[in-house]
Predict the structure.
Amino acid sequence: MPALPILEKHLIAFILVFVRLGGMMTTAPLFSRKDIPAQVRIFLAVALALLLTPMQLGSSVPSPQGLVAFATLVGGEFLIGIVLGLGLMILIQGMGLAGELISRISGIGMNDVYDPTSETEVTGMSQFVLAIGIVAFLCFSGQRALIGGLLESNRELPIGTVFDSQEVLSLLLTMLQASFVLAVRVAAPAMAALLVVTLVLGLVSRTLPQLNLLILGFGLNGLAAFGIVLLTVGITTSVFEQELMAALDRLFPWGFGL
């Protein structure tokens, strides 16, 4: 076989694998953070693409006829990477949503701060609970499972595979539902504790109406919220692990390869 067609096949396979990895790193947890330099992400994507490209050469590598066909292939690979990364990001953001729920109910959500990584205003509790989720994600080797699942996806979804839009929408909706379930399960203990604190303050206000319970209530609610979150870290990580494993099984039904 002439050298030029072989080189063209290798180059097309490398570009498509690199684009899929780049799409995943655009949306996946940790990799998509703005405080991670773009050069690091590009280097990691190139390194992984160099390792994965030989795996794709054993299967049929598409030969696009024209720029439009090639752009379509690139867009499809980028979409696959985005969907796999975004699905997991949606779930992990459920931890941030849990912190947001706790903040709004306890009244400490009024002290929003600017988060440069997401370029939005968030509450301290939201960032704290989200940090617990990210640490748990690393402790459970979530990043290895994510990369392993993406590596296996190159076997189950060879380059050039066309994604069914209905399946993509169904998958993202399922992950969104799992994210809300995770948020409620994580926030439930703190919400119950805050309800008890509110009832106690109501009884105290009836007994001692001269006390300024408005100021006292904010302090007690904040203290109770942080106290319960700290006391239930073990339960929180256990719940997060359950939802994370279920999410990884949905995103990577072919396994993680690790």
User: Anything to note?
Assistant: The chain has one domain: 3-108+120-251. Residues 3-108+120-251 form one domain. Strands lie at 113-115, 120-122. The mean pLDDT is 79.
